[in-house]
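Example record

One chain of 219 residues, shown exactly as stored in the release files.
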Amino acid sequence: PYPEPDDLVVLWTVDQVRVDRSRTVDHPDVRTLQAQVPELSLAGFAGTRPTLTGFGDPEVLLGVRVTDGLIDLMGLEPVLGRDLRAADDVDGGPRVTVISHAFWVDRLARDPDVLGETITLNGEEWEIVGVAPAGFDYPNASQLWLPLRHAVEGCGHGCRIMNAVGRITPGVTIEQVQARLDAVSQGIAEEFPNAHRDEGFAVESMLGNQVASVRTALW
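Predicted structure tokens for this chain:
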């Protein structure tokens, strides 16, 4: 349910020796591909389950930590405020969050002045900077989005903790993006052989990936 859905893709790490692919990528991969594959807007994300307090009994929420905002990537706009951005994803960066529309309605009574307010997650205050559009909960019924605030030291190349989604520039084909990924992955493997030897990336339509498990049965 996104604008120009055919341009949305998922990205995989591929072991070219075992002909095996993993759903996960590492943080340096995401930043390198963003810089060297201009035909592809990319974001990495990982699930998180923070505990919300201050609204009665503590509650574990479904959340996502992201390198870059997923709302913008999907071609949507927040109802209020802004999406998360790469500048938020720095070690020791701001504790900011985008909340889901349902959270805004159910917990905060559609407060129009919610921006700048804070919620307590795992005992820490997080500032609300945006409210997602109604119905947006990618991935996995998420209730809020937080910046990864990634510390490269201790989790750099080879520390695969994220999934990756992207949007191809209009007019560019998946085959063209794949060719660019092949060239970039070769450079990454040569520069960081201990972490990326014999590895590459594969890109696939998000829609095709979503329906892969049921395509045969439906046919």
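Notes: The first helix runs from residue 27 to 36.
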